[in-house]
Target: GNAT family N-acetyltransferase
Amino acid sequence: MTEIRVLTDEAQCRAHHGLFRRAMHWSPAEDDKWEIIRQTYEPGRTHAAFEGDEMVGTTQTFGCSMVVPGGAVVPHAAVSRVGVRADYTRRGVLSALMREQLSTLSEPVATLRASEGRIYGRFGYGLAGRVRFLRIDARKAVIPGSPVGRVRMVDPDTSDKLLPELHTAIGLDRPGQISRWPGWWAIHQERKGAAENLVTVVHSGPDGDDGFVSYKVSEDKDFKHTMEIEDFAWANADAWRDLWIYLTRLDLVDEIHVDAALDDPLNWLFEDPRVVYTKDVYDQIWLRLVDVPRMLTARTYGVAEPVVIEVRDELLPANDGCYRVSPDGAERVEGPADITISVELLGAVYLGDTKFSDLAAAKRIEGSRFDEADALFAVPVAPLCSTFF
Ligand SMILES: CC(=O)SCCNC(=O)CCNC(=O)[C@H](O)C(C)(C)COP(=O)(O)OP(=O)(O)OC[C@H]1O[C@@H](n2cnc3c(N)ncnc32)[C@H](O)[C@@H]1OP(=O)(O)O
Model:
């Protein structure tokens, strides 16, 4: 029988990490890497599945906060390192891990990045945010005008001190953005070493530092140079534009790759909008409403007549019930409901990436008054989570 345990000692956490990496077809971390990775194992947040004495499955959370529509910041669990040993798959190991993890979470919301699209819906995670992968032709990318602020290159020691504070100040700018935990920064900082050669520049305007970008440039056998933008945050349009001027005027860069929000206005920066090419749109945020009443009251709503939504949650039945959503907020009520929706799909509409009317058109939800529900849940900016975990 599968038993789920919370891991406490380091040797087991290392085995957990190795099992997850093996499930992803990656080799285990070397000793020097483990010294950094061990900092990402927070007490009480690591679950493993055991068959007898053998560890056969893993999952873990990182504690942080997430921005919801309207700007409130709520406690959030970032779920990661999900893996089941290949000789134990499709026997319910992941299901047991997910049930235990969900029932013990203290945060009202959890998100994850899914390796495959069919895994997590059954556990109540909905596809709540997508991202555009952009390719920019750096040789033709001309931004008219001059920078208005100052961009400076910072050495690794300086950026290690500066970036966590700066990200806290400016990084929580959209629904879906999350704060970063010490272990996240430990791994990011290690990447500035020789192996990955990540470079950071910081922008300052009239009120001080207000933007940063971390990037690396690699060269292929044909001497083509490609820049990968790994981390990018800005507090205002001047910082955003100045940092792009810096990036597109760098020598020896042919192409730039970056992930951007669906509504990022990057094309409009350039004389020729076609230098920005959307190579892909992919799912990014999979969101699980753990405490539906709390999460429905945490966000704000648009202007429309109130709608009553009935939520169904097989794994966490405390969420079952009807909620009246209006421009003034949300509250539990008795029925009748206008719309019936699973907790998975409520997660999909929660940040505003998906509309009720789209789910109705796809025959995924039932009811009426979808236009009013769309207007209530609409958000002025697309969700994004710039923090990979
Ligand atoms: C947040 C992250 O860390 S993402 C990384 C996720 N990890 C990986 O992709 C690593 C490789 N894969 C694995 O380790 C495992 O196959 C897992 C974790 C995806 C699934 O673990 P399992 O123990 O096999 O899942 P479990 O047996 O509980 O399956 C539950 C249900 O999901 C289905 N399912 C599980 N994995 C998949 C999949 N990859 N594709 C489609 N269906 C799946 C099962 O068929 C089962 O359906 P059923 O209830 O209708 O029978």
